[in-house]
Amino acid sequence: MVRASRSGAVAGVLAVVLVGCGAAPDASFDDTSVDTDDVSKGGGGGKGGGGGGTPQKIGYLALGDSIAFGFSPLVTTPANPGSYKGYPEVLGGYPNVALDNASCPGETSGSLLSADATVPDNGCRAWKAAYSLHANYETTQIAFAESYIASHTDTTKFVTIDIGANDLLLVQKDCLGDPACIQTKLPGALGAYGQNLGATFARVRAKGFTGKFVSLSLYATNYNDPLAVPAITALNQVMSQVTAAAGGVMADGFGAFQGVAAKFGNDACAAGLLIKMPDGTCDIHPSTKGRDALAAAIVAVAK
What we know:
- This protein is an alpha/beta fold.
- The chain has a single domain (8-301), classed as Rossmann fold (3-Layer(aba) Sandwich).
- It has helices spanning 8-14, 27-30, 66-69, 87-91, 124-130, 141-151, 165-175, 179-206, 228-245, 253-261, 288-301, and strands at residues 17-18, 34-35, 55-56, 58-64, 97-101, 156-162, 212-216, 218-219, 249-251, 274-276, 282-286.
- Strands 5-4-6-7-9 form a five-stranded parallel sheet, sandwiched between helices. A two-stranded antiparallel sheet has the order 1-8.
- Helix 1 (8-14) runs antiparallel to helix 7, helix 6 packs parallel to helix 8 (179-206) and helix 10 (253-261) packs across helix 11.
- The longest helix has 28 residues, at 179-206.
């Protein structure tokens, strides 16, 4: 997701994102290093591989959209991917972790799997055409993931993913914000989302990944919104079921934001969890506080 329109309660249904956080280092990451003596293929996980029998960093692959990418509308140097810091960069800062972040702003669950122009995205392809990503690829995100896993089968312990917010935003765009239209199209969008997420997990497993999948649930920007919360909950339920079927776990991004927002009238903006804009409003993407508040959700289940 790159940007979202704000059209009242209907926009609230779709102005949702996945976010990770960066809490203090936890043993779930620190204790998963491997030794190169036990790695049959050689080479390191991601960018931090070592050799010669020394402890080797584990490979951590992050998949997703603008939340994993760390998108911020306040960045003035979009051509430099290092200007964006998402939750993968926080988790990638752990001493024993070697990160590859393949996320792309505007990615949908469909465009993650296909470069076919008939499969809509919400800005990922345009972003790749104009700017660099954290990871160096011009194909699909799944193609990068498959290549990464094939090259780092023995060292990759975690694959995180946040995806689905842009699927919902496309429903909003197609319906021009009409609530009745959204309610009609939402079931089909959720069904397609579940199939796409399942296919993503299956293709990564097929390349030999034996580690843990961690999906990150969508959060609401306002937990009082009677349209947003049910829609988000429905997508999160699909995510939970598909992730469990793939042998993974879901980090509770929804609950992590909700717990903090509860002290501020259930409003994530008022709670400081979203990026504050110069005019005093909030963007839908997480602030540093929001990102940090939710990485604990990932760390808590990545054991």
